DNA sequence: AACAGTCTCAACCGCCTCGAG
DNA sequence: TCTCGAGGCGGTTGAGACTGT
C-alpha cells in the first residue's frame, strides 16, 4: 500500500518562498500558533502544502533559529556526535542550541564530511580508509610544508593557495580560526578556502584532539554555569587565543545554565564502566567512543527503543532542552578534566596546526 | 565580459514513527 | 489490534551564488 503524497494538489506552488509568503506564514503562526499544518496553507492564504509550510517555519522562519557560520565548538560537537551516533541530525540539533537538523545536515555534507574524507577518514566510521593507501597518506611535500615548527602561525594565511589547487574539503579545517595577522575569523572564517593542513592518518589521534578541545569547552561551560566565566577561565592556549581575538562571545555559551548534574554523573558512571586508560597519551580514543556508543545503545534498548536519544522524545528537532543539553560532551569533558595528566599533556603541546595533522 | 565548473543550502521527496480513534 | 493521518526524519535535488579561466 502506498501512501498518497501529502503535497499533491492543483495549483500548489513549489520552490523558493517569497517574502510575501513568509509574511503570511509568520503572521498566521504568531496569531494561531504551530500545529495543524495541513490546514495552515488554506487558513493563511498560501498555495503551499502543509508540509512545505512546516519545513519553511522550522528550518528558516522560526525566530529562535541561529543562522550563519558554525562556531568552532559547534563543529566539534557535530563531529563527536556523528562519530558516536551517525547521521542522526535531529539528535545533533538537540545538542546544538538554535541549529536545525537541516542546517547541521547541510553543514556536514558540504564541509565536515569532505574534511574527513580529505584527511583519509571514512566519514561514516571516522576511521582511516584502508582500501586506498593513498588516502590518509599526505604527500611528502605537504608534510614538509606543514611540519615546520619554527613558525606555527604560518598555518593560517601562509598556507593560502588558490582554491583550485586544494581539495574541496581543505576549505574548512578546524584550526582556521585566527588569521596569521591576528584578525578574527569568525564570520565566514571557517569556510575560508585558502588554507591547507596536514592530514591525519589516525582516527584516534583526531579524537584525542577532539577530546582535548572538549575539555576546553567544558571549562567554558562550567564557568558559564557557575557565572564565573572570565578572561582568567582556564582554556587551552589556542582557545584562549580564539576567544580573545575573535568576535566570538563567551555568553554564547551561557546557553546551558541549568545543566543537570545527574546527567553528568550518569555519563561518568557510563565512562567508569569502560575499560579505558585516558591517562595514557597513546590511548585510542576511538575505542572509547565505540564502547561508549555500545553502552548507549544498550541503554536505549533497555529503555524501550533502539538508538533512542536520552533526551525526551517530546523535544522537537529544533527546540532546546537546556536541562539535557550536551550530556555526552559534558560527560566526556568532565571525565577528561579529572584526568589532568592526560589533558594537560595534550593541551600544553596543543597548537591549532596539530589538530588535524 | 562571458562562460564553465564548483559550491552552498533551501526545499523537496518519500519513508518512518506514533498517537488517536 | 488495526487503520489512518500528522508530524518527524534523513537523503537528495537544483537554483543561485561564487570562482577561475
Description:
By secondary structure, this protein is mostly helical. It folds into three domains: 43 residues, Arc Repressor Mutant, subunit A; 130 residues, Arc Repressor Mutant, subunit A (Orthogonal Bundle); 152 residues, no CATH class. Helices cover 46% and strands 0% of the residues. The protein has 14 helices and no strands. Helix 4 crosses helix 8, helix 5 packs across helix 6 and helix 8 crosses helix 12. The longest helix has 24 residues. It is elongated. The chain starts with 18 loop residues before the first helix and ends with a helix. The structure holds a DNA duplex (21 and 21 nucleotides). It is found in: Nucleus.
- Ends apart, CA distance between termini: 52 Å
Q: Structural class, please?
A: mainly alpha
- Return the domain count: 3
Please tell me how large the radius of gyration is: 22 Å
| Shape summary | elongated
Low-confidence stretches: 1-5, 132-286, 295-357
* Count of DSSP strands: 0
Number of helices: 14
Helix content: 40-55%
Major sheet size, sense and barrel closure: none
User: What is the residue-averaged pLDDT?
Assistant: 52
Question: What percent strand?
Answer: under 5%
Order of helices and strands: HHHHHHHHHHHHHH
Amino acid at each position: 500500500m502506498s501512501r498518497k503524497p501529502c503535497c499533491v494538489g492543483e495549483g500548489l506552488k513549489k520552490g523558493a518562498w517569497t517574502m510575501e509568503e513568509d509574511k503570511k506564514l509568520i503572521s498566521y503562526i504568531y496569531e494561531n500558533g504551530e500545529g495543524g499544518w495541513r490546514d495552515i496553507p488554506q487558513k493563511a492564504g498560501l498555495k503551499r502544502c502543509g508540509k512545505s509550510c512546516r519545513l519553511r517555519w522550522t528550518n528558516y522562519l522560526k525566530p529562535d533559529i541561529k543562522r550563519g557560520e558554525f562556531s568552532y565548538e559547534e563543529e566539534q560537537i557535530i563531529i563527536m556526535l556523528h562519530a558516536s551516533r551517525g547521521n542522526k541530525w535531529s539528535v545533533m540539533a538537540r545538542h546544538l542550541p538554535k541549529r536545525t537538523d537541516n542546517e547541521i545536515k547541510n553543514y556536514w555534507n558540504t564541509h565536515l564530511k569532505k574534511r574527513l574524507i580529505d584527511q583519509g577518514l571514512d566519514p561514516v566510521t571516522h576511521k582511516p580508509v584502508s582500501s586506498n593507501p593513498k588516502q590518509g597518506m599526505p604527500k611528502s611535500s605537504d608534510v614538509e610544508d606543514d611540519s615546520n615548527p619554527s613558525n606555527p602561525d604560518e598555518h593560517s594565511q601562509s598556507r593560502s593557495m588558490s582554491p583550485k589547487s586544494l581539495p574541496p574539503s581543505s576549505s574548512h579545517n578546524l584550526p582556521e580560526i585566527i588569521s596569521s595577522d591576528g584578525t578574527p575569523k569568525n564570520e565566514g572564517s571557517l569556510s575560508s578556502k585558502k588554507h591547507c593542513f596536514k592530514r591525519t592518518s589516525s582516527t584516534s589521534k583526531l579524537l584525542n584532539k577532539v577530546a582535548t578541545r572538549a575539555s576546553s569547552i567544558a571549562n567554558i561551560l562550567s564557568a558559564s554555569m557557575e557565572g564565573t566565566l572570565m578572561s582568567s577561565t582556564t582554556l587551552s592556549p589556542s582557545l584562549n587565543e580564539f576567544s580573545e581575538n575573535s568576535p566570538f562571545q563567551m555568553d554564547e555559551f551561557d546557553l546551558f545554565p541549568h545543566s543537570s548534574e545527574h546527567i553528568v554523573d550518569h555519563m561518568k558512571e557510563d565512562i567508569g564502566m569502560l575499560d579505558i586508560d585516558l591517562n595514557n597519551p597513546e590511548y585510542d580514543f576511538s575505542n572509547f567512543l565505540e564502547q561508549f556508543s555500545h553502552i548507549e545503545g544498550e541503554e536505549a534498548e533497555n529503555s524501550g527503543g533502539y538508538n533512542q536519544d536520552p533526551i525526551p522524545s517530546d523535544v522537537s528537532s529544533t527546540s532546546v532542552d537546556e536541562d539535557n543539553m550536551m550530556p555526552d560532551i559534558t560527560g566526556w569533558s568532565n571525565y577528561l578534566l579529572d584526568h589532568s595528566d592526560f589533558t594537560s599533556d595534550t593541551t600544553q603541546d596543543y597548537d591549532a596546526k596539530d589538530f588535524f595533522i
